[in-house]
Amino acid sequence: MVKILIVSDSHGWKTELANVIDRHRDEVNYMIHCGDSELEGDAKQLKGVNVVRGNCDWGTDFPEDAMIQITDDILLYATHGHHYNVKMTYVPLTYRAEEVGARLVCFGHSHVATTFKENDVIYINPGSLRLPRNRKEYTYCLCTIDKNSVDVTFYTIEGNIVEELSTRYNM
């Protein structure tokens, strides 16, 4: 079993981001920040976190995207999403997922917490830790990968499960 913490769009919040990461650090195999942390690359809050650059992250501290081989057959692709116009459509992002052979795609930018599966690819936007859209809760998520399923569980910033967003996918 592999467990991944996914956060995005914390927009300068240090304490809140650190609280979420510290809450799960010892139970996850990977930690992903999908951009707009607005922190420096050496920020202590991001220690051990795979971070990609968002449109509000200035400088060159973070890569535009990241690919992590999670299991033998699951490649994770992480991006902020602004280069793929995710506020309007997911089509360019789905093309990119196909291009790189990703089975799991993590992205942010829209601040809308969502997950969906298309063409055997699971897409996860954890929402925003600071400025959520379409919901009042500040959210992040945990993705748990088993050999037969992928569970995407959304949480409020306080650590409470958001059941109506959480989903199990069969592999």
TrEMBL record:
- Calcineurin-like phosphoesterase domain residues are 3-147
Establish whether keyword Chaperone is in the entry.
no
Question: Which coenzyme or cofactor does it need?
Answer: a divalent metal cation
Q: Which Pfam families match?
A: Metallophos_2
Q: Which SUPFAM superfamilies match?
A: Metallo-dependent phosphatases (SSF56300)
Q: For this UniProt entry, which segments traverse the membrane?
A: none
Enzyme Commission numbers on file: 3.1.4.-
Q: Which UniProt keywords apply?
A: Metal-binding
What InterPro entries does its record include?
Calcineurin-like_PHP_lpxH, Metallo-depent_PP-like, Phosphodiesterase_MJ0936/Vps29
Homology family? Belongs to the metallophosphoesterase superfamily. YfcE family.
Protein name per the record: Phosphoesterase
Task: Please give the organism.
Answer: Alkalihalobacterium chitinilyticum
